[in-house]
Amino acid sequence: MGSCRVSGVTAARMLQEGFARVGRAEMVRLRRKLAMLDAQQRAIVEGVVAHVVEALAADAVRLLATQPEQHVVDSVVHVFGLSAGDGER
Fold first, then answer.
1. How many CA atoms lie within 13 A of 66 on its CB side?
2. Sequence-ordered list of residues with C-beta below 8 angstroms from that of 4, at least 6 positions apart, any chain
3. pLDDT on residue 47
4. How far is it, in rounded angstroms, from Cα 57 to Cα 34?
5. pLDDT tens across 39-68, in order?
6. CA distances in angstroms from 8 to 21, 31, 40, 41, 88, listed in the order given
7. Quick check: 84 and 4 in contact, CB under 8 A?
8. Residues 6+ apart with CB under 8 A from 16
9. What pLDDT, on the 0 to 100 scale, is given for residue 35?
10. How far are the Cα atoms of 1, 5, 11, 70 from residue 50, in angstroms, in the given order?
11. Measured distance CA(50)–CA(66) in Å, rounded
């Protein structure tokens, strides 16, 4: 980990955006398999994926938002490979 430390709140945003990015990438990857669905059905699938991704990140995001000790924040940033620009999009 570099010398650039982030707050728990910033790390929470970065983690949330990282998980959301993975969900969007999976929807792109599955585009051909979902081609037979109509627009409404695809929107439902996208909503479910977004909800699942949000639920997967929720506990860690909540923990980070409570401003835990810096070593906890640093560990999450390291484990998930977060970078400073991730939460600023």
1. 8
2. 84
3. 96
4. 25
5. 999 999 999 999 999 999 999 999 999 989
6. 20, 35, 37, 37, 14
7. yes
8. 54, 57, 61, 87
9. 93
10. 29, 28, 20, 29
11. 23
